[in-house]
Specification:
The chain is α/β, with parallel strands linked by helices. It has a single domain, classed as Ribonuclease H-like superfamily/Ribonuclease H (Nucleotidyltransferase, domain 5, 2-Layer Sandwich), CATH 3.30.420.10. Helices cover 45% and strands 15% of the residues. It is built from 8 helices and 5 strands; from the N terminus they run ααββαβααββααα. The protein has a 5-stranded mixed sheet. The chain is globular and about 55 Å long. It starts with a helix and ends in a 15-residue tail after the last helix. The model has no long low-confidence stretch (mean pLDDT 96). GO terms for molecular function: manganese ion binding; RNA binding; RNA-DNA hybrid ribonuclease activity. It is an enzyme of class 3 (hydrolase).
């Protein structure tokens, strides 16, 4: 790629990030803004993980985007950059047993409250991907498809996704017969076939697999 093409690409990327920063600009005067998102609401196994990120407006992170739109390699690279450049980053995790006990929505809220509560700086405004989290006193701004519209939520989605994927890869060593490293607990044909043949593992969500076992 020529230097000219590189500069064109860089300009295009900065313009895209400018568009994704509209909510950050709108609420900048309120104080510290925290993006929050989750990974793992839909899988048949494993935890739900929430990420909370307070970005530093003076430090650029190129290529932030909805984690689902990024390759695994890109997510891993951005994960490290977010940890390096953000003002504060935390996660919250709720496991499969508790998901079965309180349901996935309440478990997601709990993971999000945990992530926010652990931040070294408490935010003044939460930018949330679609939800309003019960039990938090700060201002909340639910944004439909927020992980594609806010750089803060995009960063949180990457932190949550990478963290959960790493957890599922660790579980793959414990329960290699299910293929968790590949499907990450989601209900793929391979996963459902293994589930029906072998039965559930200790990390399967019993309320999610009733139709399969």
């Amino acid at each position: 790629m020529t230097e000219e093409k590189k500069q064109e690409k860089l300009i295009k990327e900065r313009l895209r990030l400018e568009e994704m920063s509209s909510f950050e600009k709108e609420y900048a005067l309120y104080g510290f803004l925290c993006g929050i998102d989750e990974a793992g609401r839909g899988p048949l196994a494993g935890p739900v993980v929430a990420g909370a990120v307070i970005l530093d407006k003076n430090k650029e992170i190129l290529y932030l985007n909805d984690s689902k739109k990024l390759s695994e390699t890109k997510r891993e690279s951005l994960y490290d950059e977010i940890l390096e450049k953000a003002i504060a980053v935390e996660i919250g995790i709720v496991g499969p047993e508790e998901i079965d006990e309180i349901n996935i929505l309440q478990a997601t809220y709990k993971a999000m409250r945990e992530a926010v509560g652990k931040l070294k700086i408490q935010p003044d405004v939460l930018l949330n991907d679609a939800v309003t989290i019960p039990g938090l006193a700060c201002t909340q701004v639910p944004i439909i498809k927020g992980d594609a519209k806010s750089i803060s939520i995009a960063a949180a989605s990457i932190i949550a996704k990478v963290t959960r994927d790493r957890i599922m890869k660790e579980y793959d060593y414990l329960y290699p017969e299910y293929g968790f490293a590949g499907h990450k607990g989601y209900g793929t044909k391979e996963h459902i076939a293994n589930l029906r043949e072998i039965g559930p593992s200790p990390i399967h969500r019993r309320t999610f697999i009733r139709n399969f076992v």
